[in-house]
Amino acid sequence: LPADYRPTGQLLSDRIILVTGAGDGIGRSAALSFAQYGATVVLLGRTLHKLESVYDEIEAGGGPQPAIYPLNFEGAAEKDYRDMCDTLDREFGRLDGILHNAGELGDRMPLRDYAADTWSRLMQVNATAPFMLTQALIPLLERSESASLIFTGSSVGRQGRAYWGAYAASKAAQENLMETLADELENTRIRCNSINPGATRTAMRAAAYPAEDPTTLLSPEQIMPLYLYLMGDDSKEITGRRFNAQ
Ligand code: NDP
């Protein structure tokens, strides 16, 4: 990210951008920022009232009317993703970006005690869902002049660490998926990159580090410049790369 990067107000105007986990934390902040820079945002998440409150906030701020798409990745199957593609096709006819942000922390414990069903759930939500969602939506992304996909990694996905279990493995998988996809789509108008947000003041961070003073951390708003940079055309030539927001 260029130091002192300042997006222009029109950065995302007329773009249709899907944000997963848009109801809370970093995803909420990204949805609000993308809308502020002109995007029509599709708010995907599992808790309807949180999505509705983000929706209201975008409307109150004068942003383009967003859309709400409730979906729980835990139980979602191929048909759900196909239905989503049909709905977005009917509503918008194309898609210009996806922020793969939804994620679950799971248990923090040694692998010898880690429950297999928690492992499966984490892999489903953090790695399989981004794959299935992207696969289903490629036809809509292909209709964009310039599409950007952002995946979300973590420092424990880049180098495993004690007690991070399936979360670490699933984040490694998500960033590797990004690279495979970027390579396969190299000569298309669809590009893919990933962001490791770094320690950020959210509910997930507080669950992982209960003893930490949250006021020592950056807020989601403070890490938005990288999200805007990668979602918009200022980074048009960049694909297949892993970024750190901090
Ligand atoms: P939050 O827990 O605050 O938000 C996560 C969002 O994902 C929530 O909106 C949540 O929905 C949604 N979500 C979780 N599970 C599902 C599911 N099964 N189906 C659909 N949506 C789901 O986390 P953060 O904002 O902190 O994290 C955002 C991303 O950044 C995650 O991928 C995380 O792993 C990553 N990250 C965060 C760091 C940090 O310090 N905060 C550091 C490194 C990486 P609901 O609101 O209903 O719970």
TrEMBL record:
Q: Which UniProt keywords apply?
A: Oxidoreductase
Q: Report the superkingdom from the record.
A: Bacteria
In terms of InterPro entries, this protein maps to: KR_dom, NAD(P)-bd_dom_sf, SDR_fam
A matching Pfam family: adh_short
- Indicate the segments forming the Ketoreductase domain, all copies: 15-213
Matching entries from SMART domains are given as: PKS_KR
- PANTHER family attached to this UniProt entry: ALCOHOL DEHYDROGENASE
Q: Which family does it belong to?
A: Belongs to the short-chain dehydrogenases/reductases (SDR) family.
Name of the protein this chain belongs to? YciK family oxidoreductase
What is the source species? Gilvimarinus algae
- Please spell out the taxonomic lineage of the organism that makes this protein: Bacteria, Pseudomonadati, Pseudomonadota, Gammaproteobacteria, Cellvibrionales
